[in-house]
Design brief:
113 residues, 6 helices
């Protein structure tokens, strides 16, 4: 099975990751659930990471705590970018006009090194 199809099979789990990021953001924001739902509704992974980084700055987190979360954010950032490229540009990548093999290889090289 081509790698792009294996990656697409992972996308349903991505909504679980977004829900976990929402809960994490709400926790660090220190607001009640109704307030968090009102304020952060629709926040995606990238936005949640930005908010959490801003909270870390405001609360002056220790370097060790920041390093732990940055490692996670780096991995999530790569996965999020790959997911978005496949979802938003996948049809282009698999079109008859462009070679799926060369584009798939480009994605593999960029995200799996």
């Amino acid at each position: 099975m081509p790698i792009i199809l294996r990656l697409v099979a992972l996308f349903p789990a991505f909504s679980d990751i977004e829900a976990s990021m929402q809960a994490t953001l709400w926790h660090f924001a220190g607001v009640s659930t109704p307030t968090a739902q009102a304020v952060f509704s629709g926040t995606r992974i990238e936005g949640a990471m930005q908010f959490i980084n801003r909270i870390a700055d405001a609360q002056r987190w220790k370097k060790s705590k920041r390093n732990q979360i940055q490692h996670i954010f780096t991995q999530l950032g790569h996965l999020n970018k790959l997911r978005n490229e496949i979802l938003h540009y996948g049809a282009w990548m698999l079109s008859a006009k462009h070679s799926a093999g060369s584009e798939t290889t480009r994605c593999q090289n960029r995200f799996f090194q």
